[in-house]
Design a protein that fits this description.
- The protein has 147 residues and is an alpha+beta fold.
- The chain contains four helices and four strands.
- It starts with a strand and ends with a helix.
- The mean pLDDT is 83.
Length: 147
């Protein structure tokens, strides 16, 4: 998994990460995030962390963002499931959704036609399924030379 960071317009550091293999939410997000941040930026050891947030990462079965409109509400648009790759595709996906809002395009038609796969057991086994997905994705990266 990746660490991500940037300097904001307020000259603050925004730093984030994901749990490496096992899907869980740490009890003390500030302490957990500080430990990860200091591995990348050890010289920030005395910097105060103002805010830490977290939650389950939303993943789709095909790791592709889902877009569309709500059934029965053609003016209610949604985007979900960036699967940990939100920063990069969000720029393109938001342009496609804007095209959809303005009446559609071939890009909107293609992307909104991709139906989400059903994941059996996700209500009760979410953490296990997410962990297995992370392991599978990481192993595929290693075996295909992406690491």
């Amino acid at each position: 998994m990746i660490d991500y960071y940037r300097v904001t317009n307020e000259n603050r550091v925004l730093f984030g990460s994901a749990t490496k293999v096992l899907e869980y939410i740490p009890n003390d997000l500030k302490a957990w995030n500080r430990g990860l941040m200091l591995k990348v930026f050890p010289y920030l050891k005395d910097v105060k962390i103002d805010l830490a947030w977290g939650g389950p990462m939303e993943c789709t079965a095909n790791l592709f963002p889902q877009i569309g409109t709500l059934p029965g509400h053609p003016n209610a648009f949604f985007v979900q499931g960036y699967s940990g790759f939100g920063v990069t595709p969000s720029h393109v996906v938001s342009q496609v959704v804007a095209q959809g809002m303005l009446g559609g395009s071939r890009h909107w038609d293609v992307m909104s036609s991709i139906k989400p796969a059903k994941v059996v057991g996700k209500e009760n086994w979410r953490n296990v399924i997410c962990t297995l997905g992370k392991i599978s994705h990481q192993l595929a990266g290693y075996t295909n030379g992406r690491r």
